[in-house]
Structure formats: C-alpha cells, structure tokens
Amino acid sequence: MPESSQPFISGPGELLKRHSRSVTGLMLVALLAATVFGGKLWLSDPYRFPLNVVEVKGDFRYLGKQQLQAAVAPYATGGFFTVDVAAIRAAAEALPWVRKASVKRVWPETLRLQIEEQQPVARWGAQGFLNKAGEPFVPQQANVSIVLPSLAGPDGHEAKVLENFRRVSQTLAPLGVTVTRMELDNRRAWHLQLDDSVLLELGRTDGRQRLQRFVRVWPELFAGRLDALQRVDLRYSNGFSVNWDQLNPEDNSEKQG
C-alpha cells in the first residue's frame, strides 16, 4: 500500500526564525519611514535653506513692480523647498496687466519670476483692452498713452472682432484711411468709423463684398472729399447711400452699382 502523506509541522526553531524575519522587516520599514520623515523636516526648515533672492524678469511698460511685489509677497514665504510656487504664479496672473507668469526655484537661494505683460492692441468697450490674441482684460488704472482703435461687441466675440478689424484695415490701407472704431452689435451687424468721422454701415452679411464695392468707387466719389463725407450705407443689394456734410446738401445722394 502507498505510504500516507503526513502534514509538515514546523518546530519551535522554524517559528522563531519566521518571527524574527517579520520583526526585522517591520523595523526596516519603520526606520525608512522615520528617515524620510526626518529628511522632509530637515529640508523644509526655512532657516536651513532660506530664500534670500527674489528675481523679477520681464519688459514692463504698464505694470508697476511694486504692485507685483505686493501681490506675491504674502505667498513668497517658507524655504527653498517649501515655497508655494503655484500660489505665487496664481497671485501674479490675477493682476490685469499680467498675461502669463512662470515661477522657478534657482539653487541655492533664489526664486525667479518671469512675467509676460499684457500688450494692448485695441480698446474694448468702455474700460477694457484686447491683447494681440484677442483676449480681453480690464485694468483698474489704464495709463495707456498710445493711440489705439476702439472695438466693441458682445461678450465672447472679442477675437472675432479683432480679426475682422485687421482684415478690414488691410483692405482699406491702400486708400490712406484708418479704421478708428469697429462695432459688432447685438444683431451681428458691423459698423465702422474711419478717421474719427466717416461712418460705414456694412450690415450683417456680405461684408467683404460691400467693402470692396466701397474701395472700387473711392477714386471716383470719395478721394479728396473725406472731410465732407459723413456716412456711407453699404447695406443695399446693388449700391449704397452717401451722406455728405450739411453745408453741401446737394451732394447727398444714393449711388447704384
């Protein structure tokens, strides 16, 4: 008959060895955890690795460095390893004149802020501005000395209005006139103002074709008479209407194309 198998029973010595190995493993884990925790405490001590230098880099034209420093100062605390760079970046980018900010630690004691300032290319609405990407921003103090075109439109259409302004300005540039104001109203109709005086009504559709019609007749009807011109309504299907200065009422007419 085959021999019957017997269960293996560990002796006292084998159990003691297993227990010793378990205790040793737990001690190693505890020692490693204590080492990591102690290392974190050592590195996080601001007196051991203090931040002694805060560098601010960028081309500043409208943003005051004192204003920037006041905004980030409450967050520039702690040591080299513990300073909250995300909070500093958020505080800087919350300033209206800051488009983008980056924050870096530079060993062994420096915190470096790189600031990209907003560059206004147009006024937006009553108090705001647009940057070159068509993003709106509204600074509390707008000491902008350069002459900018005035753009307006519904919220969310800033980039579209800026793009159309650039296209229209390029179309009219050969005529020697400047678009000083453009508005997209709530009915999605376009209104232009040239050289702070002449109004162009483009309407809601076929804006490019209507503007080209104006360009084609410019040499014949409008060249040299911009001072007397008041309004050109290009919303007609086959032509446009013209309003001249009231001193010359006989010039008011409608031109059919």
Features:
ten-stranded mixed β-sheet, three-stranded mixed β-sheet, 257 residues, 2 domains, Ubiquitin-like (UB roll), Rossmann fold, single chain, 26% strand, 5 helices, alpha/beta
Strand percentage lies at 25-35%
| Rg of Cα set | 35 Å
Report the end-to-end length measured between terminal Cα atoms. 118 Å
What value does the average pLDDT take? 84
Order of helices and strands: HEHHEEEEEEHEEEHEEE
Low-confidence regions: 36-43
Helix content: 25-40%
Derived structural class:
alpha/beta
The CATH homologous superfamily of the largest domain is termed: Cell division protein FtsQ/DivIB
The number of distinct helices, counting runs of at least 4 residues, comes to: 5
| β-strand number | 13
CATH architecture name of the largest domain: 3-Layer(aba) Sandwich
Q: Any idea what the shape is?
A: elongated
**Strand order, biggest sheet?**
6-5-4-7-8-9-10-11-12-13
How many separate domains make up the residues? Answer: 2
Top CATH class of the largest domain = Alpha Beta
